Fold this sequence. Notes:
Elements: H1 3-6, H2 8-22, H3 25-32, H4 38-57, H5 65-78, H6 80-90, H7 95-100, H8 103-114, H9 121-137, H10 147-170, H11 178-201, H12 209-236, H13 239-243, H14 248-259, H15 267-282, H16 287-298
Amino acid sequence: MPANRSALVPVIALTALAPISWGTTYAVTTEFLPPDRPLFTALLRALPAGLLLLAITRVLPRGAWWWKATVLGAFNIGAFFPLLFLSAYRLPGGMAAAVGSVGPLFVAGLAAVLLGERPTVRTLLTGVAAALGVSLVVLRAAGELDALGVVAALASTASMSTGIVLTKRWGRPDGVGPLALTGWQLTAGGLLIAPLALLVEGAPPALDGRAAAGYLYLALANTAVAYWLWFRGIGRLTATQVTFLGPLSPLTAAFVGWAALGQALTPVQLAGMGLAFGATVVGQTGVRGVTAARGAETGSRPGSGSGAEKPRVPVPASRR
């Protein structure tokens, strides 16, 4: 592996910890949290984590970054979390993950429009392979489908895909670290969820120790730390590379189901895991990844300074 491409390996590995962490969300939601409270769950996952990061960094947006942070928070958090939990509650097993596995194809299309990153045949085929692999992993869970759950899963994927591409396009302002940017988005997203949760679900439910521990894990490790790593990775990798790490989430969910919940894995599921993991690896090996590393080393930043949009194609921002 060339030296400049080797420099990306630690970045990819750290970014991959985010979807791996998110893969535990399915088990925590079903085993620890109160049922049928997707909005409340989304709120407790986002807002406490965002406020904690704001308290640590003590940096607020300036100028155009007030509305940019709100838009990014809406796509990455405010819309994505409720839709994700709604689909997880309404769809059987990992079916929400199967529907969401089309994320790389969504990002490829959006990146072509907003970033000028034209998808290659290899990218499209790899995206199809990733979706097929994830579908094979969750094949046994494919019971009767709920239409609202399927729509919610697709909408959550579209929301996060848009958030990834816009985060790449806008970068971050000078002097602002990834921790602060993460805090802005989590806080904005949480504040958007709060009135909706109160309106739709009413007063918060009573929480026992098990539920409190589940929410604490989701807010800290699964959100504050994981999203910091995720947005850090978006700043150093291409949008396509980042989204191809997404299949690690359902693969982790399947592994947790096998290791902790006693769920068996069939040969078909194991083959699907191999196919999805292979697609994840292939998705990291494009030439643009090398360009991303060079951009990271030189410290270029789109959207820096006064907050004006300055997309640079194909060199993505160095935001860390």
